[in-house]
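request received
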Amino acid sequence: MTPLLYLVPVLGIVGLIVMFAKAGWVNRQDAGSSDMQEIANAIAAGALAFLKAEWRVLIVFGLAVAVLLAFSGTLVENSDWVIGVAFAIGAFISALAGYIGMNIATKANVRTSQAGRTSLAKALSVSFTGGSVMGIGVASLAVLGLGSLFILFYHLYVGETGNVNGLEMEKALEVLAGFSLGAESIALFARVGGGIYTKAADVGADLVGKVEAGIPEDDPRNPATIADNVGDNVGDVAGMGADLFGSYVATTLATMVLGREIVSTGDNANGIAPIALPMLIAGLGLVFSIISMAFVRVSDDNGSVQKALNIGNWGSIILTAIASFPLVKWLLPSGTMSIRGVEFVSEDVFHSILLGLVVGAIMSAVTEYYTAIGKRPVRSIVQQSSTGHATNIIGGISVGMESTVIPIIVLATGIFLSYKFAGLYGVAIAASGMMATTAMQLAIDAFGPIADNAGGIAEMSHLPEEVRGRTDVLDAVGNTTAATGKGFAIASAALTSLALFAAFCGTAGISSIDIFKADVLAGLFVGAMVPFIFSSLAIAAVGRAAMKMVEEVRRQFREIPGIMEGTAKPEYDKCVAISTQASIREMVAPGLIALLVPVIIGFLFGPEVLGGTLAGVTVSGVLLGIFQNNAGGAWDNAKKSFEKGVDINGTIYYKKSEPHKAAVTGDTVGDPFKDTSGPSMNILIKLMSIVSLVIAPHIAVQKHEASKAPVPPKVVLVAKK
Amino acid sequence: MTPLLYLVPVLGIVGLIVMFAKAGWVNRQDAGSSDMQEIANAIAAGALAFLKAEWRVLIVFGLAVAVLLAFSGTLVENSDWVIGVAFAIGAFISALAGYIGMNIATKANVRTSQAGRTSLAKALSVSFTGGSVMGIGVASLAVLGLGSLFILFYHLYVGETGNVNGLEMEKALEVLAGFSLGAESIALFARVGGGIYTKAADVGADLVGKVEAGIPEDDPRNPATIADNVGDNVGDVAGMGADLFGSYVATTLATMVLGREIVSTGDNANGIAPIALPMLIAGLGLVFSIISMAFVRVSDDNGSVQKALNIGNWGSIILTAIASFPLVKWLLPSGTMSIRGVEFVSEDVFHSILLGLVVGAIMSAVTEYYTAIGKRPVRSIVQQSSTGHATNIIGGISVGMESTVIPIIVLATGIFLSYKFAGLYGVAIAASGMMATTAMQLAIDAFGPIADNAGGIAEMSHLPEEVRGRTDVLDAVGNTTAATGKGFAIASAALTSLALFAAFCGTAGISSIDIFKADVLAGLFVGAMVPFIFSSLAIAAVGRAAMKMVEEVRRQFREIPGIMEGTAKPEYDKCVAISTQASIREMVAPGLIALLVPVIIGFLFGPEVLGGTLAGVTVSGVLLGIFQNNAGGAWDNAKKSFEKGVDINGTIYYKKSEPHKAAVTGDTVGDPFKDTSGPSMNILIKLMSIVSLVIAPHIAVQKHEASKAPVPPKVVLVAKK
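response:
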């Protein structure tokens, strides 16, 4: 091993120290009046109640799977019972990442409202620092966890043998895959559960509050308003934190597994350079994300928040790209390397990293185009709102489907080129490059819901109009970053899945997945169907839970006297309880589908059919993910367009006009698309790939020697007479 | 060759004679009052105007492609310039099939209204006979065209050589593929153009007529009502006729191409039994469909129309299945056959045929479950209509996505088992079995829009209430048969595509499609995206055209005095012109995508990447097809449920209630789903496969000898020291 590897966990610890410092700063900010604090405490309590309820379910599930994995690990030679422990650690850290995010978000929200009384600059500072705590926390935990576990497993399995490309290393990485599986499993449940929670509350609150009772959003008279604000924290913050933690780990792991297969002539890391590289790039990305966060500031109320975020984002990306060049050059062998027959040199690896960054940037840009106010797609939905609800829906679905074209072509080109550069390692390292600045990405993503909450608190505690104006500026930017973040997530998931998929094939001992075989093609069909049933379950769950919420809110309006006059307080906790119970119950079925389908198909039909299934899941999941995220985002902003008035055939329409009502319908349909099922797609496809990778040794078609075994003797064909 | 083959075109001619007899019978029925005839003539004129406009565009396109094909056919040894002629014939017959259907439908509609004045039995008799004319016509033309062209090409290329498994036969079948390409190309344009036409008129008429002006459906005061009724004929009749003609030909052809590859020891058809079998089964199916049509009758007004149709349908299926056993047994070799390494005997082929029939039946049954009034899926949408437009839409989307599960599992099982039975030939012959009773299927399908039109004419010419009641009974059954027909169409398309796909691989000289290769996987992604952009274009086209229609109808209501009082006639022809122009213009882009994508990918990236693309198109097209068809059907019947009143939480809601308005929104969204983009999916996937098959000789990786070439000498591996 190389001492350089110790740098990885050290960087993780440094990140955690920075995180604590930033969290301390946020906590020291003014938390406002007692009214504001009371509301904030109710939100925090609701969020914590959800997390506790969720954990109660997940701890049972987690322990069961950990035991099962530990047992199964003893059955094959290239795994170990330790995989169960790795799984538990991954699951625990994933839950912890969600908790850290939610904890800081429920503190930063009210402090952002209070800061909004002074200036936009101050409000941005508080909300973005809150987001940064989560971003740095998630990335640091990932780097620390992966780095230290890899070092541990290296010593445990490879150790003295020094056989860094053999069965020993394969075993170390297989056990490490358990860590990733733990992380991604929790991520799926957190994303789906949180997504159902937040949208049930949001849709329920809107349907009765805005549409039936005619009271504004976040009005304290609406019994579902606290649940709605809790939802932002458990779905958009805790769910997203677990999601990106899982992605980050999965991407890095997949690259490491493929790195083991690289045949080379020696490097500067005692032969493990290709395995160490993704972890070191992750470490670099963390450092430059932290540095670039200093750039995110606006001078006064006229500063452009979007521009400030862009500077920070691009700063971290460019710095990481520049720094990775000497790292790649120095670390990797100077000669030719090869993986599964594709030859490449260190520059090719660097080009793959750059390509990953470019693909991620284009995906984000396309997403922004399709969901931004004033651009052609959203404008077309606005126009189609003039002829009613139905044409608005048709318009949104059409825009969402159209929005798949460029991302898919970009993605296909990315796969094609990164493979040309450096084979499957190129594809994987492109994803690693894309994910390197996760800390910054997540900080930008998480600041949105914090600002959203801050606006809600400002409304509920009757702060001056200008405060809400400032939080609205932040919130609007947050909507855009949420959309672009999703485009980015799905791109990285596609590349990561492909890498995991390749790792799976290696471990399962298959060298091709031939869809020309009927059984593999049947697997492809079944796999492609999974994202449909998954989405169906998630969307239906939101619909059902929202209907319960509607009934409860209607009941309270009916039965609690004085509620509409503001003289009696609604029973917020009842609504919180409805969202909590519904989301916990409804997250189980989609989660189990994701976990069980690969196991059932793998054991019944073998690895090649499972490979076909994974390809189906990936392709269909990416398409449905892009479709749902972008349709939802476009509907949302079509509705928002009415706030300033829109011109339809020469007439200006505002809120409460008939076309606006149609636009509200579209937004409500889009809510579960963009915040429940859509963003779950990227976890779904990665989780199913990781499950397959973990079971691969059990369903392998043949015991195979590690791929750096001596090159077999050349063969010639001789015809037998 | 075997003289038996001459039976195929003879059966086609017999079919055409029966068709003319039935058409004559329909024409001799009473066409009703002059009022009724005037309306019927307006509908017929509008439909003919559309077909003429469509043909003007398609003739240019068709000639261009024919010339291009003829030229390309001279470039490779296993094709010929005659392929251009075959293409032109296929295109012409496809257009003719559409014309025949539309012509009889526009005569049967008014005669069904008139017959409805007497009894339900009589009305069913007229409308079903009208549908039968189309069904028999389409199937007869297919059998006649395929049979006579095959005989011709056999004499042209194989002739004296007698080499029925070599390059000569490959050439004959390749040229015959041109016929299928012509048929399927026209089918796509007809389906998409007709689908846009009918839904633009329907949505436009409903949005202004029902929703804004509050007048009933088919009210003569609505300027779009003639266009709406024309739409039923050009979309649901002419479009569907061309569609099923194309499917029928493609399925038979694919089986013939694979049949050539079968290695056997001699049969009762001079070595071409596996090639002749699908044509003979098609002939059998035609005969038994005609016979079973006699069973479709109800005794009086209380008879069950659905039951009568079921008896006819199952009669034809069971008779065909029984008769195919001795045919298969006698025709095929008694010994073992093999295709690409899979060995089988004649019983296995029979089992595949049976399996195809079972898969088709299950697909239809599942479709019926998901779209029928009173069943759980439609009931859930009804319930979700109580909380508004948005939850109705969420409910429908969720139901549509869920409805993919069982069909995909059934289909995957069908692929898996039929392959086990008889290799790729088994998959293809299963599709042939499923399609054998196309004449009956189409008769049942086409009677629906005839009954729908009859109801419209009854309404517009103010016939007594009871007449509309009788046509409504027929129309309701027609809605169910339309839905199940689509389930059937998508199942057969999936199997056919797989067979074409296999035929393509054979001709292109590739023996695997390894999605583990990065470029093939990239192709899979791009292919899976095509149905999304195709659907997006089709849906958006309906939205745009409907908006134009809405504006025109609003203008007429505003500018023509006396229109609402019924004293002035609306300008029906303006609306007809809008639908015609819009649909012709908007059908071009999706059509070109389907035709050009395989050509571009095939020539740029080669056959294996194209294979990946085809797999992507097929999987994603099948899923989106099922999703869109069933969501649309479920929304439609959720809306219809309100006619008799629905119970939501103890309250009974009827038409014009708030939940009903939400249900109307869902129905309108579902219209382009189920009648434009959804049913186009099955043509899309087949057309792209046929295009690939036709270009296969040009992009083949190697010149290859026909697969029945002498077995190559065995090889052994010898290590070179």
